[in-house]
Amino acid sequence: MQHSDVKPQVREEKCIGCSMCAKSCPKEAITIVNKKAVIDYDLCYGCGECTTICPTRAIKVQWETDGRVFLEKMAEYAYGAVKEKQGKVGYISFVMNVTPLCDCVGFSGKPLSQDIGIFSSMDPVALDRACYDAICNTMGYDVFRHAHPDVESTIILDYAEEIGLGTQNYELIKL
Q: Which residues make Cβ contacts (< 8 Å) with residue 123, sequence separation at least 6?
């Protein structure tokens, strides 16, 4: 549902009609017509599976949602997953192979940072803030802002803190 208002679009010039997208679609919203993928938008709910499976990257996500809204939704879904588990969940981040796109995308590109290490916390927002700071400090600049100049890097952290998911305050303890 994170991507539910983000419907993919087929770039016909890149589509080879392999049908991998159709086979992977959980809603059977994709068919092959004249050796090209065709998406039925009445059935598609925007999961993005087709964008990740396409070997030629012929299917792309239409980022109709404002970037800020998309990131706020991400924080809200994370909060929804743990709201009733406050203090009962620990978080671990492996700051390795940090990619410019979502890690669920198989072709997300060259890592933005060298491998930094493993971080843990009982607070997911503090953990993400510590990882973000460590990456930017190690690299000497905001690698996320550099990779996505139109997106404010800390929107999700600010909003996650605002809705009560956690706090951006942290104490870094090196082991």
A: 91, 166, 167, 170
pLDDT bracket for residue 48 (50, 70, 90): confident
What CATH number is given for 8-61 in this structure?
Answer: 3.30.70.20
Q: What is the value of pTM for the model shown?
A: 0.70
Given a contact cutoff of 8 angstroms between Cβ atoms, the answer to whether 51 and 25 are in contact is no
Domain ranges of the chain: 8-61, 67-162
- pLDDT 10s digits, 76-116: 999 999 999 988 999 999 999 888 877 666 666 788 999 99
Handedness of CA 136, 74, 106, 39 (dihedral sign): negative
User: What is the C-alpha separation between 74 and 6, in angstroms, rounded?
Assistant: 14
Instruction: Say which amino acid occupies 104.
Output: C
3-state helix, strand, coil in the chain (%, to 5): 35, 15, 55
pLDDT of residue 105: 64
Helix-then-strand count for the chain, H and E: 6, 6
The residue type found at 111 is P
